[in-house]
Amino acid sequence: MDCIFCKIVNGEIPSNKIYEDEDIIAFNDLYPQAPIHFLVIPKKHIESCNFLDRENSEVVAKIFVKIAELAKEMGFDESGYRIINNCNDHGGQTVKHLHFHVLAGRSLNWPPG
Ligand code: 5GP
Ligand code: ZN
Q1: Cα-based distances in Å from 30 to 34, 67, 69, 80, 97
Q2: Is the minimum distance from the CB of 95 to ligand 1 under 6 angstroms?
Q3: 20 to 30 A from 65, CA-CA: which of 21, 23, 33, 84?
Q4: Do 47 and 96 contact (CB within 8 A), yes or no?
Q5: Is the CB–ligand 1 distance for residue 89 below 6 Å?
Q6: Which pLDDT tens digit goes with each residue over 27-60?
């Protein structure tokens, strides 16, 4: 399958990994939008939030727990951060493999554009 995040999972494309286990991987975004900007993805290909269901969604809880752990370890839990998922065209999703952005290290604007 021609998916850049699957290629990152299987090592075909290099990435700056910050965490990996049997189910998920976290790596720095190639074009960071904040001092800290990484992505957390399921290793299994899920196209977007639209494709989550009762069978495959346990990994989303794992991703959120790992984000909370990384926030503490990396020291931005108290200052705060934003978790973002973009879905399809209006959401601004450019890579069709489910991923959660984590941005931290500066104050972020709201509402988004
Ligand atoms: P989306 O727009 O789909 O929510 O986010 C895709 C993100 O993946 C973008 O922030 C983009 O910078 C990042 N990205 C795209 N290609 C690569 C890549 O090859 N390596 C890494 N580390 N990030 C990528
Ligand atoms: Zn994929």
Answers
A1: 12, 19, 22, 22, 16
A2: yes
A3: 33
A4: yes
A5: no
A6: 999 999 999 999 999 999 999 999 999 999 999 9
